[in-house]
Amino acid sequence: MSAAKVLTVIPARGGSKGVPRKNVRLVGGRPLIAWTIQCALAARQLFHRVIVSTDDPETAEIARRFGAEAPFLRPAELAGDQVPTLPVLQHAARFVEEADGLTLDWVMLLQPTAPLRAPQDIAGALELALAGGCDSVISVVQVFDVHPILMKRIEDGVLLPFCIEEKEGTRRQDYQPSAYMRNGAIYLTRREVLLEQNSIWGRVIHPYVMPEERSLSIDSEQHLQLADLILSGKKISPDIS
């Protein structure tokens, strides 16, 4: 694979409204963030650096304990509940470029809330990006239970198709066209798109399709409990080298 300079950023605020302190909550015997750190480090030969961007000293200490860098605490303007991900990634990328005296090629966002991704997913997404022709690569999962064909609207008390007509008796394997949803596991963005165009997605996005069993995204206590059940018997993936 190309020797492109790729920065991996794991964003982890100290606060969380939906699931309090979720990034450091124990899941499968480890802090939630540790699963993403150890997955990234299993593919460390692909990256220039793997860093955690946090505003929280406890999270930074946990990140270092599990092998990631936490070279800064976010400035106050990047620490609030309403701060979007874009400026957090831009801050981390500019920090690394200035500190290391180089220009990055790609920035990979790995959210701690997707703990089931595997090192081969990281490698596969990067391989897709380096093949060219895109501004970003975003991981997705094929959906059935939330396929648009099942979505309805109510008009004057009548149930109508929201956007695609569902014929009675349609089997889920016959849902067309196939539908995919972002699973929150991987976002990989070309450096100039992130820093010069102020975008994580850009205009041309290539999908990296992941299986359902690695696509859990944690945004509730129930999801956290499910992840704990799944990860309690899981071993850390070995290096992919």
Give an overview in words.
The chain is α/β, with parallel strands linked by helices. It has a single domain, classed as Spore Coat Polysaccharide Biosynthesis Protein SpsA, Chain A (Alpha-Beta Complex). It contains six helices and ten strands, in the order E-E-E-H-E-H-H-E-H-E-E-E-E-H-E-H. The chain is globular.
Brief summary of the model shown:
The protein is of the alpha/beta class. The protein has six helices and ten strands; from the N terminus they run βββαβααβαββββαβα.
List SSEs in N-to-C order: EEEHEHHEHEEEEHEH
Structural class: alpha/beta
Instruction: Kindly report the CATH topology.
Output: Spore Coat Polysaccharide Biosynthesis Protein SpsA, Chain A
* Helix share bin: 25-40%
Counting DSSP E segments of at least 2 residues, the number of strands comes to 10
Please describe the structure with a list of short key phrases separated by commas or semicolons.
22% strand; 27% helix; globular; Spore Coat Polysaccharide Biosynthesis Protein SpsA, Chain A; two-stranded antiparallel ribbon; alpha/beta; 6 helices
Topology:
Blueprint: E1 6-11, E2 26-27, E3 30-31, H1 32-42, E4 49-53, H2 57-65, H3 85-100, E5 106-109, H4 119-130, E6 136-143, E7 152-155, E8 158-161, E9 179-190, H5 191-195, E10 205-209, H6 221-231
